[in-house]
Write a structure and sequence with these properties.
Chain B: This is Diaminopimelate decarboxylase. Chain B: One of its GO terms (biological process) is lysine biosynthetic process via diaminopimelate. Chain B: Its cofactor is pyridoxal 5'-phosphate. Chain B: GO terms for molecular function: diaminopimelate decarboxylase activity. Chain B: InterPro entries: Ala_racemase/Decarboxylase_C, De-COase2_N, De-COase2_pyr-phos_BS, Orn/DAP/Arg_de-COase, PLP-binding_barrel. The structure holds two protein chains of two kinds. By secondary structure, chain A is α/β, with parallel strands linked by helices. Helices cover 39% and strands 15% of the residues of chain A. Chain A is built from 16 helices and 15 strands. In chain A, the strands form three sheets. In chain A, strands 1-2-10-7-8-9 form a six-stranded mixed beta sheet, with helices on both faces. Chain A has a five-stranded parallel beta sheet with strand order 11-15-14-12-13. Chain A has a four-stranded parallel beta sheet with strand order 5-4-3-6, sandwiched between helices. In chain A, helix 2 packs across helix 6, helix 6 packs across helix 7 and helix 8 packs across helix 9. Chain A starts with 14 loop residues before the first strand and ends in an 8-residue tail after the last helix. Chain B is an alpha/beta fold. Chain B has three domains: 151 residues, Lyase, Ornithine Decarboxylase, Chain A, domain 1 (Beta Barrel); 250 residues, Alpha-Beta Barrel (TIM Barrel), CATH 3.20.20; 40 residues, no CATH class. In chain B, helix 3 crosses helix 4 and helix 6 packs across helix 7. The chains are: A alpha/beta, B alpha/beta.
Chain lengths: 438, 476
């Protein structure tokens, strides 16, 4: 398939049947709409392009595309703006996934992170982020192209003309009986539901939101949906909550059993769909069909999953790690006081290794010492002893705690003359011993 | 009923369970009446110290005096290991008279000449807000031939790289980019002032903003060292927060329902449908909730612990480890957090009509509403009556003023109040006790008493009579 421009690759995503052995539904065929296969990686490519196209067509050189977005919309807009030689700026207070931030910076986007809540309350400060952004844009004068995804009807239209008709076409001209979607800007769920209902007024539309204190990327909480201009509760036959835990369970099933490399939003849609459909499956008499949306891809959410399921990233323990030290080994860690350290190590031509961070070392350190920050030192030790056994060695850290651990470990690894500086460099300073900056 | 049940520790609960004791106090001293629990403040200091120890950090916990004017609290803290942060001439005099020595006092906030002079004369640390203030201080020291004054530099307006972290504009502190000018000034005034550290204070609950500020301050301290100065401490101010509510689910439910009420999808929860910052526009909820997050799972010492464990945005190391690496002391200035569970305000019920309860107290004596903290009071009923309940009530104050509602939220009480009952507004020692209290309309300001344990018994005295020396002392 030949294209003149990457935007032509947006849309026409596959509808893939989920193996009944995986979902276990007896009477329902479950399909995943793979929006993750859009060129920029998510369902937002459609809305971003549909909203941005008219703005980009009349853009003046130097204009900046701007949007209140914490993820996929920002990503798509950054790429689209870049194709037109324009900068993109995202304003956000919800960007909680570090990989997304890094990716946006890599794409050349500018990110403004809004401040947190006030500790000493100012009752007069009641602006919502969108109002605050409008004011900031106004204060800076013109030159901004704001796609306004939470209020822009073109966000919905992208799905009325794209996603919705594609699903109907792929189901042989029929709408599914159930449609399940996570509610973010409400654009995709509203647009698709409108098309499906034109074909089948009885289609049951289930909107998924996150529990109030929970966080699933791309899904708004039960309260936050009411801040979305496009959100109309009448669109949904039911609004149900999914938890981050369920979203990750759904993600793991789709990834490990179905070969669908979904992110947590799609995982949440799958989990929410299964929960809803399992409750009705047994009472059904004929065949039914259901569709859910797989919003985006897994790779950007590794830290999100790692924070919540560290066991999924389990690795075998590494050799020579301070974590393997026993209480007895720690108790027997060889230490030297300041006077003894000066006599035994410094005067004897021994080596002083300062384990603090390089900036702290450069600001002040013991004359003649070398700096190997503890995380680098730990890496070196996995491979074996990095220091000659024949040379006295003094380890230094702020208060003598980390250095004692490493001294115990080096002793176990066979260094006969390693010590930790008791009380660390703070005790050294407090004793009036010399520190230099060179 | 949509209640917001306050968190109550056993000491306050034991007071609430002793109706006769409270009623006697109120009969003697009038309504409203403020109770402070000085010994609890000492426990709170100890909890902060435990966080310091966990991170191997030295430094001082300074009580932000502005949170409460009580003498008892201040004197009890002076008896322990805390320092104090004073923000006015009067607070400095109060701290000195409570027994704080100069090495345990830091003077912050906007300062007039008299405040600067007394600070310099007594040798307290002055947190300099600007170059002008630093110059004025040095001028006073020079003109009056005073000894060199220890100073810290309060910085603000920190830059972040990569993602631009926005922060509300502050009226305090010198922009971090103008540090070099301050250091020039310090160098020229070395006989009058000497640098002991730098400081920031951000009015935010967000850790990422504080992480940016803290890392910038570490860089500023290193710049000071590079100029041959020997700063010892980083003062990160306060803002550690208090958790006011017993149940997070209640808070979530109430705030959800408030949004629904503002959208007109349920009956109002507030006087005249007040939205606390939320408003409806075309069926969409706009504005933002102008309320203190009354339920906060991580506050006080635990919040400090989390901040110290937060990786520095540039260097990647946890901020606590960076402080240690660079050998700086950590100074903190909690106000609210040090007064968690340290007091309550009592008021008498004057009249009840339908869902309106009129109290002999006004919204300035219990300034919960002013500070956006929502929680239910505890009713201490007269014994014997059979009552209906639970139910929702509006609490009206004793000022001849339409807006004098103790809170615009309809509070939830387990039983219907009757005249002569007491309502207790618990956990109000930090900012909600006397911060806003006035004699408007010649209504009395609440008297304040200290309740403490000594010799195995509960005792009380007027706040100004309290000194931390008790006969037959059994400090906890």
């Amino acid at each position: 398939m030949r294209h003149d421009d990457i935007t032509e690759a947006i849309g026409n995503t596959p509808l893939v049947r989920i193996d009944p052995a995986v979902h276990g539904l007896a009477n329902i065929d479950l399909y995943a709409k793979l929006e993750l296969l859009n060129p920029f990686g998510s369902v937002k490519d459609r809305a971003a392009w549909h909203m941005a196209r008219p703005l980009l067509e009349r853009a003046a050189p130097g204009d900046t595309v701007v949007e209140l977005s914490s993820g996929n919309t920002a990503k798509a807009l950054a790429l689209l703006a870049g194709m037109h030689g324009l900068p993109f700026k995202s304003v956000t207070n919800r960007m909680k996934v570090p990989e997304i931030k890094e990716l946006l910076l890599l794409l050349g986007a500018e990110i403004d992170e809004l401040p947190g809540g006030s500790e000493c309350l100012d009752p007069a400060d009641t602006d919502d982020p969108l109002t605050r952004m409008h004011r900031q844009l106004a204060a800076e004068g013109g030159g901004y192209l704001h796609t306004d995804q939470y209020f822009n009807q073109r966000n919905v239209d992208a799905h009325v003309h794209g996603t919705g008709p594609e699903i109907v076409k792929d189901l042989g001209g029929r709408a599914p009986d159930y449609f399940v979607a996570c509610v973010g800007t409400a654009g995709s769920s509203t647009g698709v539901a409108r098309v499906l209902r034109q074909h089948n007024p009885d289609v049951e539309v289930i909107g998924l939101v996150a529990a109030k204190s929970d966080f699933i990327p791309g899904i708004r909480t039960i309260d936050e949906v009411h801040e979305v201009g496009l959100f109309d509760p009448g669109v949904y036959d039911a609004l149900e909550t999914v938890t981050a835990d369920q979203a990750i369970d759904g993600l793991l099933t789709l990834v490990r059993r179905c070969g669908i490399l979904t992110g947590p939003t799609g995982g949440g849609a799958f989990a929410g769909a299964l929960r809803h459909l399992r409750a009705v499956d047994a009472s059904l008499t004929g065949r039914r069909s259901a569709v859910f949306i797989v919003c985006d891809r897994l790779e950007s959410y590794l830290s999100y999953v790692r924070d919540r399921r560290p066991e999924l990233f389990g690795r075998p323990p590494r050799r020579n790690s301070v974590r393997t030290l026993t209480e007895a080994e720690l108790g027997a860690a060889p230490v030297l006081g300041i006077a003894a350290a000066q006599r035994h190590v410094l005067d004897a031509g021994g080596l002083v290794v300062d384990l603090r961070n390089p900036y702290a070392y450069q600001a002040l350190h013991i004359a003649g010492s070398i700096n190997i920050a503890d995380e680098v030192f730990a890496e070196l030790l996995h491979a074996g002893l990095p220091v000659s056994r024949g040379r006295p060695l003094l380890l230094v850290c702020p208060v003598g705690e980390k250095s004692a651990r490493y001294a115990a470990l080096l002793r176990r690894m066979g260094h006969p003359d390693v010590h930790s500086l008791a009380g660390g460099i703070i005790a050294w300073r407090d004793a009036g011993a010399e520190l230099v900056r060179d | 009923m949509l209640g917001l049940t306050p968190r109550i520790d056993p000491t306050i609960q034991s007071l609430l369970d002793d109706r006769d004791y409270l009623a006697e106090l109120l009969d003697a001293l009038g309504s409203p009446l403020a109770l402070v629990l000085p010994q609890r403040a000492t426990e709170n200091v100890a909890a902060f110290r435990a966080t310091f120890r966990r991170h191997h950090l030295s430094g001082r916990v300074h009580f932000a005096h502005k949170a409460n004017r009580s003498s008892a609290l201040l004197r009890e803290l002076a008896a322990g290991e805390a320092g104090v942060d004073v923000a006015s001439l009067g607070e400095l005099q109060h701290a000195l008279s409570a027994g704080f020595t100069a090495d345990r006092i830091v003077a912050t906030g906007p300062k007039n000449r008299e405040f600067l002079w007394l600070a310099a004369r007594t040798g307290v640390t002055v947190s300099a807000d600007s170059a002008d203030e630093l110059a004025e201080l040095a001028g006073i020291v020079s003109a009056h031939r005073l000894p060199r004054v220890p100073v810290t530099l309060r910085l603000s307006g920190f830059a972040s790289s990569g993602v631009r972290q926005l922060t509300r504009r502050s009226r305090f502190g010198t922009p971090a980019g103008e540090l070099a000018g301050l250091l020039d000034l310090l160098a020229g005034r070395a006989d009058q002032v000497h640098l002991t550290g730098v400081a920031y204070h951000l009015d935010t609950t967000a850790l990422p903003e504080k992480a940016v500020a803290m890392e910038n301050c570490l860089a500023a301290l290193d710049e000071c060292r590079a100029r041959g100065l020997r700063p010892r401490s980083l003062d990160i101010g306060g803002g550690f927060g208090v958790n006011y509510l017993a149940d997070g689910a209640e808070w979530e439910r109430w705030t959800t329902e408030l949004g629904q009420a503002v959208l007109g999808r349920r009956p109002p929860l507030t006087w005249d449908g007040h939205g606390y910052g939320l408003r409806a526009e075309g069926g969409t909820l706009r504005g933002s909730l102008a309320l203190y997050p009354a339920y906060r799972p991580v506050t006080g010492p635990a919040y400090l612990d989390q901040l110290l464990g937060t990786p520095a945005p540039q260097l990647g190391r946890p901020l606590g480890e960076l402080l240690l690496d660079h050998m700086y002391d950590l100074d903190v200035e909690p106000g609210r957090a040090l007064l968690d569970q340290c007091g309550l305000v009592l008021a008498r019920v004057l009249a009840v009509s339908g869902d309106r309860v009129r109290l002999d107290v006004n919204a300035r004596d219990v300034s919960l509403e002013e500070h956006g903290v929502l929680m239910d009071p505890v009713i201490v009923p007269r014994p014997g009556d059979r009552r209906t309940g639970p139910a929702g009530f509006y609490l009206l104050g004793n000022l001849c003023l339409e807006t004098d509602l103790i809170t615009r939220r309809k509070v939830c009480l387990p039983v219907e109040p009757r005249p002569g009952d007491l309502l207790a507004f618990v956990n109000t020692a930090g900012y909600h006790m006397d911060f806003n209290a006035t004699h408007a309309m010649h209504q009395p300001v609440a008297r304040k008493v200290a309740v403490y344990r000594s010799g195995g018994a509960r005792r009380w005295c007027l706040d100004e009579q309290y000194w931390p020396v008790h006969s037959g002392q059994d400090t906890p």
